[in-house]
Structure formats: structure tokens, C-alpha cells
Amino acid sequence: MSKKSDWLIPLGLILLCLVPILGGAVRIGELAGNKSITPQNARFFTAPSVVITHVVCSLVYGVLGAFQFSRGFRRRCMQWHRRVGTLLIAFGLLSALTGLWMTQFFPHVATDGPALYSIRLVVGIVMAACHIFAIVAIREKNFRQHGTWMMRGYALGMGAGTQVFTHLPWVIAFGSPPTDWERDIAMAAGWLINALVVEWFIWRKALNRSFLAAQH
Ligand code: HEM
After folding, report:
1. Rg of the chain over all Cα atoms, to the nearest angstrom
2. Helix/strand/coil (H, E, C) string of 23-56?
3. Of 87, 99, 128, 141, whose Cβ has the fewest other Cβ atoms within 10 Å?
4. What is the dihedral of CA 186, 192, 198, 200, to 10 degrees?
């Protein structure tokens, strides 16, 4: 890889997935082993296959998806980019759909606030829709549009990583993670930050393109 950004971007995105990867691995270990069921983890034991599908798809999506953002890697390994891209659509859709399933069927958690259910519904539906629009765009051979929808979907998915940082101020200030409304705000902020960053990135790319077109 020649340019610094070719490996810095994937590395940064993989680091962002690190805490969800660890959390997911612990949860799968708990479900696979003979760990005792407690009021805190009981909901996960009611649908282990959904939880395991969610965690595995989300984590593969996060890690493999990170390499799609390296321009150098993309150019050198176009076949890989296409094959993995197809897989990522399936993983991204499964991540969003299983997330929606848990949102709908898991009981309300005492530490969640009143808005988290609706926020998760919106995020899950928009994330799934981004992948469907990406499929439509690729079928129409509109590669730019396809990339834009995949970026939007991935940014929402990576909200799980950004949420680690949006929870951090509470942990530092009060010694424990936020609960109730404060938790809803921290969760929503993670998704919102990523959505804003990706829209800024898409806007900047479009601006660069129109600048280059004006020069020719
Ligand atoms: C690629 C992105 C995603 C990653 C990396 C991810 C990661 C995880 C992990 C590791 C867990 C297990 C948490 C635990 O064991 O306590 C989990 C649970 C969950 N996820 Fe995701 N997730 C992603 C996307 C989504 C989306 C888009 C939604 C929204 C619909 C969602 C909704 C949920 C719900 C409702 C739970 C159960 C939470 C609970 O009951 O405590 N996830 N996710």
C-alpha cells in the first residue's frame, strides 16, 4: 500500500470495532458455555441464534467493510473488493434485521431510556434501506450511487463503535455508564455523529468532483 490513508482508514475503522468485537465475543462465549442465566443476560438466552447471527454478521461486516474504504487496496484488488462487497451487503442486511428483531422482541432493559426503542427502529430500518438502495444502484450499474449508499449503511453500523466514545464522558465524570435519558442521548449521538461524518465525506467528494470537472 503506497499512501498512508490506504492503511490508516481501515486501521482506524477496525480499531473503532474493537470494543464491540470484545463485547460480542464475551456474549457468544457466555451463550456457548454453561454460564448461569441472570436477570441481566436472560434475554440473550431466549434467542441465542439471533444474538449469535447479529454479533457475527455485525463484526465481520465491520472488519471486512473497513478495507473497502482503502482506495489503494480497492484499485489493487478489484476482484476482492467486488466479492467482499457482495458479501457485505448480506452481512449488513442481516446485522440490521437481527438488530431490529432484538429491538422488537427483547424486553425493555431497565437502564435504557424511553426513546431508545424508537431510535433503534429508525436506525435499523435506515441501515437496511441503505443496503437495499445499494443493491438497486449496482443493478443499474450506478457504481457511484452504490458506493454512497454502502458508506451510509456502514456509517450507521459503526455507530456501535462510536457509542463507546459517547458513553465515555459519563464514565469519566460519574464513574459509571449513563442510564435512562442520558443513555438514549449517548446512543443516539453515536449514530448521529457517524451519519454527519459520512454526509460530510460524501459532500466533500462531490465538491472535489465538480471542481475537477470545472477545470477540464
Ligand atoms: C455493524 C453494526 C453493529 C455492531 C458491531 C453491533 C454489535 C452488537 C453487539 C456486540 C451486541 C451484543 C451486546 C451485548 O452482548 O450486550 C449487540 C446487541 C444488540 N444490537 Fe447490535 N450491533 C450493530 C448493529 C445494530 C443495529 C443497526 C441495531 C439496531 C436495530 C442493533 C441493535 C441491537 C440490539 C437491540 C441489541 C441487544 C441489546 C440489549 O438487549 O442489550 N445493532 N450489537
Report:
1. 19
2. HHHHHHHHHHCCCCCCCCCHHHHHCHHHHHHHHH
3. 141
4. -110
Residue type, 140: E
What phi-psi label fits residue 37: left (phi over 0), alpha (psi between -120 and 50 degrees) or beta? beta
Judge if the beta carbon of residue 124 lies within 6 A of ligand 1: yes
What is the rounded CA–CA span in Å between residue 98 and residue 51? 8
CA distance 17 to 63: 7
Q: What gap in Å lies between CA 12 and CA 9, rounded to an integer? A: 5
Alpha carbons within 13 angstroms on the beta-carbon side of residue 174 total 9
Give the 3-state DSSP-derived string for 176-204, with helices as H, strands as E and coil as C: CCCCHHHHHHHHHHHHHHHHHHHHHHHHH
16-31 pLDDT, tens digit each:
999 999 999 999 999 9
Give 24 Cα–ligand 1 centroid separation in angstroms: 9
The rounded Å distance from CA 75 to ligand 1 centre is 32
- The pLDDT tens digits for 26-72 are 999 999 987 789 999 999 999 999 999 999 999 999 999 999 989 88
Q: Which residues contact 37 (CB under 8 A, 6 or more apart)?
A: 45
The answer to pTM > 0.90 is: yes
